[in-house]
């Protein structure tokens, strides 16, 4: 027994000794530890203070100005009423207003009745796409090896918009975020309409209301890849199709392009959330929902209540809560105040807004877990299916990102910050042969990006018209700007410019990334909640849900009830049709100068402002509650395992990439095409920007003149990328090796003339541009530049033959280019099929697009 006590005593002494050694911190260590804790508390307090300051500034400035405007309007109205009372006309105005208001109320209620009827008819028909164009089903996803509810639709062009089959096809993917498909083409001035007017074949990726049993997002991505291949087979003479993704369709397009990097042409992301933790403090409250309302388990619970199916009406309701003033009052008052002209527009939009679609539990869980709460796509941790990671660096197609400062669902930071999280800097973007172009609108809202006629006629139209220029740009990061315009309203043309940007430029769009740290704790907590729910709660929920109970829950959803209850099936509502018809025959609208009409407008403005004030106060509480819950030092420690992002390459490691080494090994290989492109890159690097006329000359030479005309789009792109790598990493050798590419005096003289022709007159050149031209002449053994080249040398001389393909066609490796500054749209590109005879009725000099 004594041995036992001796052993215990020895163990106790050893334990105390180890504790003494472990806790023998110096005072400086304790100070450092306390300082770290205070720093984290300070960070949390600073975030909360920034949020409060931003919200209070918005409330104090915006609402003060709006309140003052309403007060001024009331003062003016009081004077008007006083004058009308004095001259005895006030009662006449009242009678006129009462008649008008009563008639408008009947017409408004009848419009809501018609909305209810349309809702029921739309659901009975399976909620087909709301496209205004006729369409044909080309591929039904249900017939594919991995069935899904997606469909490839071919838009039947109107008679006045004939399609040219050799032009680049457009594929538009609409968001499946609670609503149905068709928002990208539900009116003439839309994404579909813009492409059709330009003669492009247009295809639409739609979907049915109910997903296939067991359908996953991997099945959807496989189906979309099959759709793209089908379109390419239908248009063998056209360039690769453009794929446009709207909102949630944008990240779906990224998945498609990342998993099939050789499949698509340029991809366009419109208002698409990718870096979902990002946003500005005090401005973007939707991103806090996961931390306030719950994470992934919510999607799992609601799916279980739906018998394995998530109801899209819940997503739509969440959207409506973002802006209660607009969704619960403003849009109805707009209808009421302009019921004579707004009925059709209201009904068309509500047909789409009220078409509620469903998602499988696996789909909804992936979206929440991988994107909105976990943010795994931007961190290179997302998996589409077991063993298949999604790497956005694998995308080889040009990426065009359209965002807006007025978008409260996908702010610019969520649309753009993934670029900074994926690439070490803009040089890596170029090294990998990638072109990323972004455009930020100042004020259009989220839905306006897809449905606004102004946006369609300006931004979407210019993106369509400049795609050839975008593909001809040197790889890199650019901002696209639409500067000024020419011509009348209906035929207006804009000047588009592309400005070289750095990753730091993207970072300045944000107010810092410290506010993203608490989201890591939310992500970890969400995973733990989901695991607990799956093991301990889910079996009980699923045991109590049947197919019928799930359908009943969907039918009694408030958004469905408010439409179905106010339809002709309700005997109390049905008489509205007859009353409205009678009112239209006796319509007597009041004038805008009627003081009671003015009083109505002021009252509506006050109500709308009150709801906006409620929203702003609510958002302030949400944001500060989020930071108070998830921004504490403990929560920062708790989320540390989920905080790290993608490991980025160091700048000094970029030269060691296989693409760079492959290009440098071929620095002495090539011919006329390689030499001219290399010199143009060196010239662009020396001047930093390119004017519109210079870009047009460059694009014309590289696409319409031999020997460049005989290059395919892929060949031209590979040469451009490879020569850019050479210039970036071996600039001096790139210049000194030019004689090895241009072996004859004739080729050297012609190449020098072509390169001098593009920047224009000598007296318009910047000094460094002229200096670079003189360097070319010196290296090639030519006399100094002395006179202008005013005509295209390749049009006035016999074309130089291409170097044999074995020497000029570089291996298909990702490469880089030196970006130019401000550039503008280029002329059209010839068709890929390079036959001297015109095809399909196309004139011999008509370019492909």
List the defining traits of the structure above.
849 residues; alpha/beta; TerB-like; 10-stranded mixed beta sheet; two-stranded antiparallel sheet; globular; PHA/PHB_synthase; DUF3141; AB_hydrolase_fold; Poly(3-hydroxyalkanoate) synthetase
Explain the overall architecture.
The protein has a domain at about 655-810: TerB-like (Orthogonal Bundle), CATH 1.10.3680. Helices cover about 55% and strands about 10% of the residues. It has 34 helices and 14 strands. A ten-stranded mixed beta sheet has the order 1-2-4-3-5-6-11-12-13-14, with helices on both faces. It has a two-stranded antiparallel sheet with strand order 7-8. A two-stranded antiparallel ribbon has the order 9-10. Helix 8 (about 295-305) packs antiparallel against helix 12 and helix 8 (about 295-305) packs parallel to helix 19. Mean pLDDT is about 85; it is low at about 805-849.
Topology (SSEs and partners):
Elements: H1 2-22, H2 27-87, H3 90-124, E1 135-140, E2 150-155, E3 170-173, H4 191-197, E4 202-207, H5 217-234, E5 242-246, H6 248-259, E6 267-270, H7 289-292, H8 296-305, E7 309-311, H9 312-322, H10 324-337, H11 339-353, E8 358-360, H12 361-372, E9 383-385, E10 388-389, E11 399-404, H13 412-422, H14 426-431, E12 435-441, H15 448-451, H16 453-465, H17 467-472, E13 476-486, E14 493-500, H18 503-507, H19 517-543, H20 547-555, H21 558-564, H22 576-585, H23 595-630, H24 633-638, H25 658-665, H26 672-687, H27 692-704, H28 713-729, H29 731-736, H30 738-741, H31 745-757, H32 767-779, H33 793-796, H34 805-808
Parallel strand pairs: 3-4, 3-5, 5-6, 6-11, 11-12, 12-13
Antiparallel strand pairs: 1-2, 2-4, 7-8, 9-10, 13-14
Helix pairs in contact: 2-23, 3-10, 3-11, 3-21, 3-22, 4-16, 5-6, 8-12, 8-19, 10-11, 10-23, 25-28, 26-28, 26-31, 26-32
């Amino acid at each position: 027994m004594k041995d036992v006590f001796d052993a215990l005593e020895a163990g106790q002494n050893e334990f105390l000794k180890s504790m003494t050694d472990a806790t023998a911190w110096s005072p400086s260590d304790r100070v450092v530890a306390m300082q770290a804790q205070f720093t984290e508390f300070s960070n949390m307090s600073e975030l909360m203070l920034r949020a409060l300051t931003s919200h209070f500034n918005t409330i104090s400035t915006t609402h003060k100005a709006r309140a003052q405007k309403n007060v001024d309007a009331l003062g003016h109205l009081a004077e008007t009423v006083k004058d009308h009372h004095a001259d005895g006309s006030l009662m006449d105005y009242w009678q006129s207003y009462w008649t008008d208001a009563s008639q408008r109320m009947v017409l408004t209620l009848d419009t809501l009745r018609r909305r209810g009827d349309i809702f029921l008819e739309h659901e009975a028909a399976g909620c087909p796409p709301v496209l205004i164009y006729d369409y044909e089903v080309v591929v039904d996803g249900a017939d594919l090896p991995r069935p899904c509810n997606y469909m490839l639709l071919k838009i039947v062009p109107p008679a006045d918009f004939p399609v040219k089959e050799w032009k680049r096809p457009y594929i538009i993917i609409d968001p499946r975020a609670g609503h149905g498909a068709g928002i990208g083409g539900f009116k003439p001035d839309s994404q579909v309409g813009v492409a059709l007017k330009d003669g492009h074949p247009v295809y639409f990726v739609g979907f049915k209301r109910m997903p296939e049993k067991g359908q996953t997002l991997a099945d959807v991505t496989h189906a979309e890849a099959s759709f793209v291949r089908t379109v390419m087979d239908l248009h063998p003479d056209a360039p690769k199709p453009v794929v446009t993704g709207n909102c949630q369709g944008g990240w779906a397009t990224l998945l498609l392009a990342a998993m099939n990097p050789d499949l698509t042409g340029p991809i366009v992301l419109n208002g698409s959330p990718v870096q979902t933790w990002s946003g500005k403090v005090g401005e973007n409250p939707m991103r806090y929902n996961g931390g306030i309302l719950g994470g992934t388990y919510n999607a799992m619970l609601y799916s279980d209540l739906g018998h394995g199916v998530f109801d899209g009406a819940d997503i739509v309701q969440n959207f409506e809560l973002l802006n209660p003033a607009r969704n619960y009052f403003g849009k109805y008052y707009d209808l009421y105040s302009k019921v004579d002209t707004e009925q059709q527009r209201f009904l068309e939009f509500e047909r789409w807004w009220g078409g509620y679609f469903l998602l499988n539990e696996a789909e909804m869980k992936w979206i929440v877990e991988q994107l909105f709460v976990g943010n795994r796509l931007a961190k290179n941790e997302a998996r589409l299916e077991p063993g298949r990671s999604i790497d956005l660096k694998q995308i080889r197609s040009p990426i065009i990102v359209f965002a807006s400062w007025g978008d409260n669902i996908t702010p610019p930071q969520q649309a753009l910050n993934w670029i900074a999280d994926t690439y070490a800097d803009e040089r890596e973007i170029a090294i990998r042969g990638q072109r990323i172009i972004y455009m930020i609108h100042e004020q259009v809202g989220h839905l306006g990006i897809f449905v606004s006629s102004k946006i369609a006629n300006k931004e979407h139209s210019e993106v369509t018209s400049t795609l050839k220029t975008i593909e001809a740009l040197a790889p890199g990061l650019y901002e696209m700007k639409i500067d000024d315009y020419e011509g009348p309203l209906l035929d207006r043309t804009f000047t588009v410019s592309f400005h070289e940007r750095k990753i730091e430029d993207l970072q300045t769009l944000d107010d810092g990334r410290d506010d993203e740290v608490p989201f890591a704790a939310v992500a970890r907590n969400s995973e733990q909640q989901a695991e607990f729910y799956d093991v301990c709660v889910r079996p009980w929920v699923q045991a109590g849900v049947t197919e019928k109970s799930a359908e009943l829950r969907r039918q009694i959803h408030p958004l469905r009830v408010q439409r179905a209850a106010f339809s002709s099936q309700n005997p109390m509502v049905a008489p509205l049709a007859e009353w409205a018809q009678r009112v239209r025959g006796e319509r007597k609208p009041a004038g805008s100068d009627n003081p009671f009409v003015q009083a109505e407008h002021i009252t509506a403005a006050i109500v709308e402002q009150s709801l906006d004030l409620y929203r702003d106060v609510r958002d302030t509480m949400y944001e500060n509650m989020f930071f108070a819950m998830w921004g504490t030092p403990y929560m920062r420690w708790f989320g540390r395992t989920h905080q790290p992002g993608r490991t980025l390459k160091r700048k000094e490691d970029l030269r060691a990439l296989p693409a760079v080494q492959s290009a440098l090994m071929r620095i002495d290989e090539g011919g006329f095409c390689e030499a001219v492109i290399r010199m143009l890159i060196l010239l662009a690097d020396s001047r930093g920007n390119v004017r519109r006329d210079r870009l047009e000359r460059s694009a014309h030479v590289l696409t319409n003149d031999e020997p460049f005309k005989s290059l395919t789009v892929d060949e031209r792109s590979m040469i451009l990328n490879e020569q850019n790598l050479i210039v970036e990493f071996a600039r001096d050798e790139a210049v000194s090796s030019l004689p090895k590419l241009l072996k004859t005096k004739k080729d050297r003289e012609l190449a020098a003339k072509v390169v001098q022709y593009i920047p224009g007159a000598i007296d318009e050149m910047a000094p460094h541009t002229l200096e670079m031209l003189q360097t070319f002449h010196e290296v090639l053994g030519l006399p100094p530049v002395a006179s202008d080249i005013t005509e295209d040398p390749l049009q006035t001389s016999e074309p130089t033959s291409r170097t044999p393909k074995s020497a000029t066609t570089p291996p298909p490796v990702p490469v880089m280019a030196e970006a130019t500054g401000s550039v503008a749209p280029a002329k059209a590109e010839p068709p890929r099929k390079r036959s001297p005879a015109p095809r399909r009725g196309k004139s011999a000099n008509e370019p492909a697009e």
